[in-house]
Every structure is written in structure tokens, then in C-alpha cells.
């Protein structure tokens, strides 16, 4: 499965070259699944889902703050916590990814400057764009099988308002950099990938009314996808 996914109901798309429905699911299987951005609002939910799937595979959370990770993620015999900074391509990052069979990236940033940016050290371009590039470069060819990356709507087709917001801090530019790194890495290292174009994610439920889904084309030679 290679391509883009637009978040609609069920997180499904049409499989390229077929009419079968293919859904994005979180399952650790028997190998090692690495989650980057594991202590973020979405990342922590992904980790908890992986740990509750009943599988036997290891789930490795890549974090900058081990104490925060233990507080947010808790403990589990299948959970490993590796302290690395994806903005730095070093031996620790390569070691943490050496045996990864599945990579799930929940790297993200606010669209406008905030305290999370740490004065520019953790800006979207550095944390998401360059960070994802470092992660992909550190994956082991022949070992890595699947990559799932959380991105956002309008990353590839920005309206005027998104272009204006992007000028402030480059949040959408950073996500496009991350997507490009994933796509280039797939060609080089032979893994399958899914890019999830999610809408604004909030820590609250949302009504099912008012959601429109249409068939369209995203990117070059991607094929039909469901867009929200």
C-alpha cells in the first residue's frame, strides 16, 4: 500500500490499482514498531492502541523527555522508551531505529509560534521537516517494512489562508518536507508507506454531521484517494 490517506470515517481509502477498501489500523504485530512523537496528543493514543492490540511485538517510543514519557505512557512489558532528539542525526537515533520493522510518525507542531517552539529550536521546520528526514535516513534498508506518517490537510494543495499561515512559521512547508522524505525513502529502502492527511485534531469528540467526502487526486501518480 503506497500513497496518501484522507481522514474520513474509518480512515479508509481505495487501494491503488484495485477497488478494495484499505483501512489504516494500528497493530504492532510480532516485530518492533517505533513511534516518534510518542508523547504528543496523538502519539500517546497511538502507543496505547498498539499496546492494547494483543500482539507480542515491541513498541518503542522515541522521546526527548523520559520522565514525561513514563508519566504519559505508563509502563508495559512490551513498551520500550528510547531518549533521542530526532533533530539530531546521531548514533542514538540510528540505534533506536536499527531493528524497526514499522515506523509511525506523529511528529507535529503548532501552526503559529508558541512556547513549544522553544525560541526556534523546536520550530516546525526543525522538529517535523528536518526531524523526519533524519528519521528516514536512519532506517535500516531491508529491515523497515512499513511507514505511516501523520500529516495534515492542505499540505499538498494549500488555499490562500493556509499559505498565509505558513508564512508565519512554515508548518505546512515542514509537513511537505516530511512527506517528501518518506516518499524518497520508500524508493531507496523499499518500504510501503501511508501519509495521513488529517484535519485539525482536538482532544474532544466531534459530531458526525457536516462531513463531506469526495474522490480526488493527490500528488503525482498516487491514484484515487478519499479526501475530507
TrEMBL record:
Give the source's domain of life in one word: Eukaryota
SUPFAM superfamilies per the UniProt record, alphabetical: NAD(P)-binding Rossmann-fold domains (SSF51735)
The UniProt record lists the NAD(P)-binding domain at 37-206
Q: This protein is called what? A: NAD(P)-binding domain-containing protein
- The species this protein was found in: Rhodosorus marinus
Its lineage opens with:
Eukaryota, Rhodophyta, Stylonematophyceae, Stylonematales, Stylonemataceae
